[in-house]
Design brief:
- By secondary structure, the protein is mostly helical.
- It has one domain: Cytochrome c-like domain (Cytochrome Bc1 Complex, Chain D, domain 2), CATH 1.10.760.
- The protein is 62% helix and 0% strand.
- The radius of gyration is 13 Å and the shape is globular.
- The protein binds heme C.
- Heme C binds next to α3, α4 and α5.
- Heme C (HEC) binds next to α3, α4 and α5.
Length: 96
Amino acid sequence: MTILFALLLACAGEGRVDDILALTGDPVAGEAVFDSSCASCHGAAGSGGSGGALSGGDPQGVAETVLFGNDEMPAFDGDLSDQEIADVVAYVTEVL
Ligand code: HEC
């Protein structure tokens, strides 16, 4: 049962990540999203904090982390729109 659920989530997840990667992220708008949603843990301009420093990275991996979170990081699916996630991914991967 748990495995089935995880599988369903993984399938739904792939589509969501693809939707976000298909959008054009605006790094300038993404900076504002970062300041309000990420800087509390990852520091101003990704300089680091409880969430560690951020710089660059693979857009797909960053989008997955923001959408679904990880052990220590909250998921932003529902809190941020797909466009806001695309914007913050562009900021993290292109500017930081
Ligand atoms: C409540 C604190 C918190 C918030 C808010 C937060 N994060 Fe995180 N984040 C973490 C922690 C903790 C980790 C896991 C430890 C690490 O990689 O530094 C993490 C990991 C990551 C990773 C993976 C880093 C790696 O090297 O694997 C990325 C990318 C990331 N966060 C991006 C973001 C973005 C973008 C936002 C804003 C939308 C955000 N985080 C908001 C705490 C947070």
